[in-house]
Amino acid sequence: MISAIRPVAAPVTVRAPAKVNLQLAVGPARADGYHSLVTVFHAVSLFDDVTVTTADKTTISVTGEDAAAVPADRSNLAWQAASALAKATGQRGASVRIEIRKRIPVAAGLAGGSADAAATLVGCNELWQAGLSARDLAELAATLGSDVPFALVGGTAVGRGRGEQLTPALATGTYHWALAFGREGLSTAEVYATCDRLRAAKAATGDQAEVTEPELSHPLMAALRSGDPEQIGPLLTNDLQPAALSLQPALRRTLAAGREHGALGAIVSGSGPTCAFLAQDAARARDLAVALTGSGVCRAVARASGPAPGATVVRDWDRHRDRQPS
Ligand code: C5P
Fold first, then answer.
1. For the residues 315-323, what does the mean pLDDT come to?
2. Which residue is closest in CA terms to ligand 1's atom 21?
3. Ligand 1 centroid, distance to 163 Cα (angstroms)
4. What is the strand order of the sheet 300-306 is part of?
5. What is the average per-residue pLDDT within 53-59?
6. 3-class secondary structure, 221
């Protein structure tokens, strides 16, 4: 008897970006434990690649930056993304091999796990020819984590709600960054909890008024429209920064070193501990990266530019292009 030969879908590789927050305004804790936010997300050219392949059972493997720190089981957001997509498209039993090539450090405030989840959603949608629209994927993404919808779209966008409600921001120009990675990660939940504690302590001593609903920085939005990094640098703000600094006081030295070496703006990225430094141009970002590396205030430094695209299927020619000398 001749058995039917099922076509095996080719593996799909998707590349998804890290993000920094140009503004992160944190409001009061909501009844569901999350905080209402207004944030300006900005995707940067530091990417994880996720390859999904049809398999008999779901597995996950991780290589690259911090690979040992990434769980290779159901607790990985990429695994949850594949399960959520299978459920949403009526293929409950569908299994997939997920291979993550990490360049985005873990627990760094750069939304690396969210990038992997977004890449897995896009990859499985293609692998299974599921045909979900961008809007469907965004809805699924929001169930996985607050930053996952942004990793799908990339660019520069305003996030509201807990970060998952996005509107594109009118931004012009390319921005050049040096990213200083910390020696130890920070838990996002712990940083938010510390932010609440610091605020409560200040309120008790009368130093801080009641926490109000966050508002978008209009000067920052105007500066983004102008495309001038010199205007943007002093307008970068992060309400989580005092909490990240109280958990890792050494980050003060990292921020100071970046400012001393000419950064236009110096800020903790998201919940940290990565510090993001805005430079005038690509050459100055390189100089800043060299100076920060030499100053010994961080584990490693990367250069990146933004805005970068959201989760995108990597075609063969893209892979070929990656091998070209720059
Ligand atoms: O959404 P995500 O799972 O990435 O969030 C991780 C943690 O960060 C949450 O469990 C919560 O403690 C905190 N968080 C928050 N408010 C937000 C986003 C995240 O309190 N808007």
1. 60
2. 162
3. 9
4. 265-268, 275-279, 175-181, 300-306
5. 95
6. helix
